[in-house]
């Protein structure tokens, strides 16, 4: 009797374990699917598009750190000599006006403090004329400094815009093509058939 009871309890435990194991194996855990990251306007952006959109910022940052570096990043090597040529030209203008300003400033000081040191070549020029020339050179020198700052900003903007239009087609294949085509004949009725026509097909490549 006890043996049968133990056998019954063992069978019940065994069936319970089998049932629990089958439930565990049948239940497959659901993996959470990663939701794609959406832009604020709801457009999904892949890595390639994000890299293209980051190009203008990178180009502008590099041009800000070193003039011409953004143009090199955009593979516009031919612009680098123009950038540095512009800075060299502005620097030469600044240097020339700075030297002339010092010369006429010294002449104006000599005429007020020690006329014996004044330049005899400018003996026929009045003191007001010397001061006026000095001020003109000083004004041109200051404008050259502003021109240098403006040119520095322009080369940054150029690198940004050049990288911004990287995704657009700016090749020489922007043209209008005319292709002759023939139109099939059509019959309005059995008495008056219409002959085939010849026309042109316009294709605009952008």
Automatic annotation (TrEMBL):
UniProt source species: Daejeonella lutea
Top-level taxon of the source organism: Bacteria
Keyword Signal: yes
Protein's UniProt keywords contain Signal: yes
Protein name: DUF5683 domain-containing protein
Signal peptide: 1-22
InterPro entries recorded: DUF5683
Keyword list, A-Z: Signal
Domain (DUF5683) ranges: 55-191
């Amino acid at each position: 009797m006890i043996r049968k009871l133990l056998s019954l309890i063992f069978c019940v435990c065994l069936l319970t374990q089998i049932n629990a194991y089958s439930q565990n194996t049948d239940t497959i855990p659901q993996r959470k699917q990663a939701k794609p990251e959406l832009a604020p306007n709801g457009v999904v952006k892949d890595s390639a598009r994000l890299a293209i959109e980051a190009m203008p910022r990178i180009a502008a940052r590099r041009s800000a750190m070193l003039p011409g570096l953004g143009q090199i990043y955009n593979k516009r090597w031919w612009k680098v000599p123009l950038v540095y040529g512009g800075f060299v030209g502005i620097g030469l203008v600044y240097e020339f006006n700075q030297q002339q300003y010092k010369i006429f400033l010294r002449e104006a000081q000599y005429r007020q403090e020690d006329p014996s040191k004044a330049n005899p070549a400018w003996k026929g020029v009045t003191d007001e004329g010397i001061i006026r020339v000095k001020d003109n050179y000083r004004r041109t020198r200051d404008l050259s400094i502003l021109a240098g700052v403006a040119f520095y900003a322009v080369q940054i903007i150029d690198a940004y815009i050049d990288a911004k239009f990287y995704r657009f087609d700016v090749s020489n294949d922007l043209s209008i093509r005319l292709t002759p085509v023939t139109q099939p004949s059509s019959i309005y009725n059995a008495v008056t058939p219409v002959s085939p026509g010849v026309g042109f097909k316009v294709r605009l490549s952008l």
